[in-house]
Amino acid sequence: MSESSGAESGPFVSGLGKGREAFHAEVTEFALRTGERTPEDFLRHFSCRAIMRSLEARPMERARIVSQSTGVHEKVAHKMSPDASGESLQIALDENVTTAAAIVKLFQPDDRQRYLERHALWAFDIEGQPWKTTPATKSTHDRAKSYVAYILARALENLLVSHEEVVHAITVTKLAQCLPKEKLGAIIEASLKTSDKFTEEDLLGAVPPRDLVEYVALDYLWEKVVTPLIAEAHDYAPKPVVLLAGSKANGDAKPPNSEEGDWGSRNTNPPAQAAPVSSSVSEDEIVSEDEILESELTEDDLNPGTPTVRKVAAADGSKKAVSR
To answer: What angle do CA 257, 263, 269 make, to 5 degrees?
Structure first.
């Protein structure tokens, strides 16, 4: 993470309306404006060609970005394919005709959210891992606290998560452990002044996200709130794959008590049973196969499908039963 080269005045509010898309557009723009992420980081994640391809259905928007970045006339840029537009933009960047900051600024915040792949955009947003910063690096840690607080505040504002969910995820016990006495006193005082039930919304009104990040560890907030309730719940990040006990991570997991193979491929007919030895054969008639004169056996005798006990020619010329 690097410092911002200069934040723009006024907070960005998405024109996509309240909800998942607006929240993500606002978070990405905030990350760029505050220096949590840089334009160079953005172009490392999304190349010039990838940006132009994402705008394949928006030829006028492509032409505007290419024209203002490279100097190519807009009518000419409008006739260029997405790949040609991306190549032209990359050449202008390589030859210092334009800059990463200029390209990213021309790519409108709401359009980034509309046309770029959601998971890839979130991966860009959190690549700096703000939850892992420590107070030892004060400037970086302060920026990380501001970023996490912004994510929590905008998630609440865009109705991605409720006050109840946030408080329950953090737990009242954890808040009581982390908050200083003056903050706890302020909460108690606020609860006494309200004539109605003191709710989780009232609690977060007394301790808003900007205060939470000052007293509760960032990694705890990220693990308990941001990842499960925001990133995974709203498909910014893929949910972890839960494997069944004893299954492998290569996709071979099977439901408990399942049998090998598909039901339709299994033979439902019971196996044929061997013919029982006839009870009329006495022990003195049983001889070993070594006593059999092979020359006396026929093809039918050697057929594995024939009964296991049969009369065969013995050395003494009599017919005896053979046990196999």
So the answer is: 110
**Whole-angstrom Cα distance, residue 278 to residue 108?**
90
The alpha carbon dihedral of 47, 53, 55, 60 has a sign of: positive
Q: Which two tokens stand for residue 5?
A: 């080269």
Residue 39 corresponds to which amino acid? P
Q: How far apart are CA 148 and CA 265, in angstroms?
A: 54
CB neighbourhood size of 78 (10 A): 16
Distance between CA atoms of 122 and 6, rounded to whole angstroms?
A: 23
54-70 tens-digit pLDDT: 999 999 999 999 999 99
pLDDT digits (tens, 9 = 90+) for 272-316: 454 444 444 455 555 555 554 444 545 555 555 545 444 444 444
Does 4 have pLDDT greater than 90?
Answer: no
Measure the CA–CA gap between 237 and 119, rounded to whole angstroms.
Answer: 5
Dump pLDDT digits (tens) for 208-259: 999 999 999 999 999 999 999 999 999 999 888 766 555 555 544 444 444 4
Bridge partners, 313 (sequence order): 319
Residue with tokens 């290419």: 66
Q: What is the DSSP letter of 243?
A: P
320 in helix, strand or coil?
A: strand
CA distance 315 to 180: 105
Closest to 118 (Cα-Cα) out of 40, 2, 232, 240 = 232
Distance from C-alpha of 198 to C-alpha of 192, rounded to nearest angstrom: 8
- CA neighbor of 274 nearest in space, from 316, 304, 251: 304
Instruction: For Cα atoms 215, 216, 219, give the angle at the middle one, nearest 5 degrees.
Output: 140
